[in-house]
Specification:
The protein contains 13 helices and no strands.
Length: 242
């Protein structure tokens, strides 16, 4: 499993995908936090990182599928997927290795944003006037959300050999799970069931975590959805062996 994980990470680092994703993410979030007049911290007047945690999920909706679209689709198109089945690893270990490789690239993109935290920490009218505990909680929520998006992207890549199709499916599913349920819940036809429908969406749980409140129910939901998508991917991958 470790060999597959390292191979996938090296594959990313030897191509432009990882560098493009990291550059686009940091540039986009950097412009939103420091340049654009409606969202930048300097004009906002408060020492917080709400801009980062509010807009990152929408950037991830497109960037994470771009990272994951090749994980299985490329292997199937080139015919090298069968070689993985000859390795002394289980199907789930193969899925998990590819998932972790994609997640590592996303984490690489997030790490430089810590510079934003230290910048705001120093720029506060009273130095250090930032809710550090809240920022830590928000980062945990963002990492969990990225984990779900990555799992969805891996699943999408497993059901097709076309990377563009995998990208489109992943974007659609990520959007549906993130804000689709909340949007449907806002339609005044569900009655008392609207609250339940809203809670099925990722936005409900991520919003709670992004306030810095680590509720076990939100964490369990995000982790459960991640595991469910990985298990579905395993089913797809295993079925193709036959």
């Amino acid at each position: 499993m470790l060999r597959i994980l390292l191979k996938e990470i090296n594959s990313y680092l030897n191509s432009l995908i990882a560098y493009i994703v990291i550059s686009v993410f940091l540039t986009g979030i950097g412009l939103l936090m420091w340049v654009f007049p409606e969202t930048n911290v300097l004009d906002y007047g408060f020492a917080d990182m709400e801009t980062l945690f509010s807009f990152s999920p929408y950037v991830f909706l497109f960037l994470i599928p771009a990272v994951t679209m090749k994980l299985f689709a490329e292997e199937k198109k080139t015919g090298t997927l069968e070689l993985l089945f000859t390795q002394p690893v289980t199907d789930f270990q193969i899925v998990l290795a590819k998932y972790l490789a994609g997640l590592v690239i996303v984490i690489f993109a997030l790490i430089p944003t810590l510079i934003y935290y230290f910048s705001i920490y120093k720029l506060g009218q009273t130095q250090g006037n930032i809710d550090t505990a809240g920022v830590i909680g928000s980062y945990i929520g963002l990492l969990l959300l990225a984990g779900v998006f990555t799992a969805i992207g891996v699943f999408a890549s497993s059901i097709t050999e076309n990377q563009i199709v995998a990208f489109i499916i992943a974007v659609f599913l990520c959007f549906l799970f993130y804000s689709g349920f909340g949007s449907m819940a806002a339609i005044d036809v569900w009655g008392s069931g609207s609250n339940f429908l809203d809670q099925l969406g990722l936005l409900y749980h991520y919003s709670a975590l992004s306030k810095g409140l680590i509720d076990a129910r939100n964490v369990v939901y995000l982790l459960s959805l991640t595991v469910a998508m990985l298990l579905l991917t395993q089913v797809i991958v295993s079925s193709r062996k036959w």
